[in-house]
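User: Predict structure, ligand zinc ion.
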Amino acid sequence: MSKKKIALACSVCGSRNYTITENLNRVERLEVKKFCRYCNQHTLHRETK
Ligand SMILES: [Zn+2]
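Assistant: Predicted complex:
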């Protein structure tokens, strides 16, 4: 089973704060609220290609 690494970037400052590994069964685009240490608050993080 192949997996790929995905970087989650802050939608406010664009910093790639998190990387996750996931399988390919996902359909929807990933959007997660996570803490950004550059913005010093919780912001929406999106996957980057
Ligand atoms: Zn940020």
